[in-house]
Amino acid sequence: MLKEALSKTENYLPNDRVDLGASFNKITSSPHFGVTDEELSVVRERCTKFLITLTHQLLEKLPNNVTTIQELRLIAPNSAIASVGRPRFEQLPFDLAVPDIDIDKLEAQWRSLGTLTLKDINPEFSDGMEIDSVKFWGNVRQLSNAIGETPYEQLADFCLKALTLPVSNAVVERVFSIMNAVKTRARNKMQLEILQCIIRIRVHLKEVLKSCCIDFQPSHDMLMRFTSQMYESTRNPKDLGTPRQTSNSTAEGEDLLEMITLFDNDNESHDCL
């Protein structure tokens, strides 16, 4: 809409009516300014053209999915369970949903979620406090009823996946920087699988654990995998040792939380490993 308005010159104000700021008006209205009206008109015209050009360039830098990004505010904690002005289900950013998503089930869960309070989701939450969206939907996903079912799992997964949408290409650029630091000329024969593992470790240590390889403490599960069997190439690495038993649903949720934490952090990864 704004691009269309800028393309029509009849929408522009005359140069003498363009607001160039209080400082500009103060300087030009000073009796000691010493510039003729004709020269001032030229200055105003050049300033106006600069603002128009700047606006065009800013619009070009905006992502094409800016509308979808704006819709993410509808799944913010305070909006999701608001008693007044709660977004309608059809307003949610379904452009980010997978094709085979069960809309009816999501709608039922969204309506049911509106009956809960922040305390029902997490006793630490309270009205008026700033709540992290990832933590909120992570808690919603873990809610269970009397028979152990998770009644909001599909809705929480949808919202968590929506939150993985990066608002800029900074994350992608950061991963490429890490890749260039890992796969150097001296390591140019590194296989893709090893490269992916190293990048994942670097990103996880820095962005998720806020740690480094120097002070990283391996878990008991990791230590149990360090046996002679780890050198057997015919075995599946997941079968080594006694790995922690995790359901597919839980593992998927943990991966989502890790992915969102990565996209939500704009700090550059340091050299580790």
UniProtKB/TrEMBL annotation:
InterPro entries: HATC_C_dom, RNaseH-like_sf. GO terms for molecular function: protein dimerization activity. Residues 152-201 form the HAT C-terminal dimerisation domain. This is HAT C-terminal dimerisation domain-containing protein. It comes from Gryllus longicercus.
